[in-house]
């Protein structure tokens, strides 16, 4: 199952709206088939592994990180494929909450006389597909907030200088994290100020996460890096629906996908933004700031994971804080995160925190 989990993770960032499942077929201590959900979400992991195993799957043990599907999509259900292959037993890490499956995959297998065991490495499977579960059960993507800051939590000097606070090894880690997410998300201020491309570079991979910009009035540079590349790598703009019609059409012509979102006061409602992104199919969103968007997500308790890169440099109180004002009454009102991992990356420290409720 550990191998199936690591195979499944290969698909992260590429299988949305589907989960990134892994599957291993074993008989007499030998691995006969390995599969993972293919880019775009199909074929599913089990059919990949079954194709590899061929007739040898007869009587074999199947380890799969998510309950095999029970519904007819573009191909017949995986549960049926496993039955047809006459496998000996199926070990499932966790149930598939998709209403079209939701226990029915296991039921089909059991009804055909195939023993099914549940819950092996379940916590790992839930974490690996946290995006799929968030979208299916909470109708929003799993949100990771990344902050690359100075020792004192600043992301730029008073003059706006921000390149580079953390070093090349940390930046490489950020590119790897981008590749494992369905989308990278920033606020309009960051798009205007930094003109980022938000693409994955230097890793030799051949796919790109979508780029999401949250900007009520579509106030994003029309000659900027995002505009120039919108035809090659998707740009999704979450806007207030009350923006300039010409601007809207211009972005459409540039190839951007426009998602009108609800307002909360004068700002875009961060929950509705995430819900619209989930409707669009996104399951894992990697937010890279700026401080206003970060604050609105934290304030609404919509951040599931924090990834911090902290450099050994102090910028001081005049610098730009990583997270804008939260208007907290008491410390107890601040969403608190639990430390998940911490390690040195080049000259910096990377720390990963998980929301306690997840
Ligand atoms: C599996 N193995 O590798 C994956 C599964 O649109 P479809 O027909 O591809 O179905 C998508 C649903 O299939 C998805 O919501 C989830 O329930 C399941 N994904 N199932 O048995 C896989 N990716
Ligand atoms: Zn399937």
From TrEMBL:
Pfam family, one: RibD_C
Cofactor(s) required for function per UniProt: Zn(2+)
Alphabetized Gene3D superfamilies for the sequence: Cytidine Deaminase, domain 2, Dihydrofolate Reductase, subunit A
Keywords: Hydrolase, Metal-binding, Multifunctional enzyme, NADP, Oxidoreductase, Riboflavin biosynthesis, Zinc
Family under the similarity heading: In the C-terminal section; belongs to the HTP reductase family.
Free-text remark on how the cofactor is bound: Binds 1 zinc ion.
Stated role: Converts 2,5-diamino-6-(ribosylamino)-4(3h)-pyrimidinone 5'-phosphate into 5-amino-6-(ribosylamino)-2,4(1h,3h)-pyrimidinedione 5'-phosphate.
Catalytic activity line of the entry: 2,5-diamino-6-hydroxy-4-(5-phosphoribosylamino)-pyrimidine + H2O + H(+) = 5-amino-6-(5-phospho-D-ribosylamino)uracil + NH4(+); 5-amino-6-(5-phospho-D-ribitylamino)uracil + NADP(+) = 5-amino-6-(5-phospho-D-ribosylamino)uracil + NADPH + H(+)
CDD domains (UniProt xref): Riboflavin_deaminase-reductase
Lineage: superkingdom: Bacteria
Entry protein name: Riboflavin biosynthesis protein RibD
InterPro entries in the record: APOBEC/CMP_deaminase_Zn-bd, CMP_dCMP_dom, Cytidine_deaminase-like, DHFR-like_dom_sf, Eubact_RibD, RibD_C, RibDG_C, Riboflavin_Biosynth_HTPR
PROSITE patterns registered for this protein in UniProt: CYT_DCMP_DEAMINASES_1, CYT_DCMP_DEAMINASES_2
Pathway connected to this protein: Cofactor biosynthesis; riboflavin biosynthesis; 5-amino-6-(D-ribitylamino)uracil from GTP: step 3/4; Cofactor biosynthesis; riboflavin biosynthesis; 5-amino-6-(D-ribitylamino)uracil from GTP: step 2/4
Domain CMP/dCMP-type deaminase: from-to ranges: 1-116
Entry EC number(s): 3.5.4.26, 1.1.1.193
């Amino acid at each position: 199952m550990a191998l199936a989990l690591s195979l499944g993770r290969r698909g992260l960032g590429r299988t949305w709206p589907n989960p990134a499942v892994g599957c291993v077929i074993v008989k007499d201590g030998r691995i006969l088939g390995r599969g993972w959900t293919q880019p775009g979400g199909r074929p599913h992991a089990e059919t990949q592994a079954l194709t590899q195993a061929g007739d040898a799957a007869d009587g074999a043990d199947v380890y799969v990180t998510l309950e095999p599907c029970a519904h007819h999509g573009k191909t017949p259900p995986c549960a049926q494929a496993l039955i047809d292959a006459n496998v000996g037993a199926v070990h499932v890490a966790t149930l598939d909450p998709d209403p079209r499956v939701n226990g029915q995959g296991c039921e089909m297998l059991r009804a055909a006389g195939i023993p099914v065991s549940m819950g092996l490495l379940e916590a790992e499977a839930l974490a690996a597909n946290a995006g799929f579960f968030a979208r299916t059960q909470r109708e929003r993507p799993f949100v990771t907030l990344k902050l690359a800051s100075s020792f004192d939590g600043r992301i730029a000097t008073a003059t706006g200088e921000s390149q580079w606070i953390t070093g090349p090894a940390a930046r490489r880690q950020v590119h790897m994290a981008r590749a494992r997410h369905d989308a990278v998300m920033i606020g309009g201020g960051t798009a205007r100020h930094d003109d980022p491309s938000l693409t994955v570079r230097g890793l030799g991979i051949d796919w790109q996460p979508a780029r999401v910009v949250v900007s009520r009035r579509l106030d994003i540079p029309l000659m900027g890096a995002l505009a120039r590349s919108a035809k090659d790598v998707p740009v999704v703009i979450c806007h207030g629906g009350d923006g300039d019609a010409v601007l809207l059409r211009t972005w459409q012509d540039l190839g951007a996908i426009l998602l009108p979102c609800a307002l909360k006061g004068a700002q875009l409602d961060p929950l509705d933004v995430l819900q619209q992104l989930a409707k669009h199919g996104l399951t894992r969103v990697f937010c890279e700031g700026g401080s206003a968007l970060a604050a609105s997500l934290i304030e609404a308790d919509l951040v599931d994971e924090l990834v911090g890169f902290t450099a050994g440099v102090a910028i001081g109180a005049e610098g730009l804080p990583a997270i804008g004002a939260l208007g907290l009454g008491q410390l107890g009102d601040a969403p608190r995160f639990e430390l998940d991992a911490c390690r040195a990356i080049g000259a910096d420290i990377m720390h990963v925190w998980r929301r306690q409720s997840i």
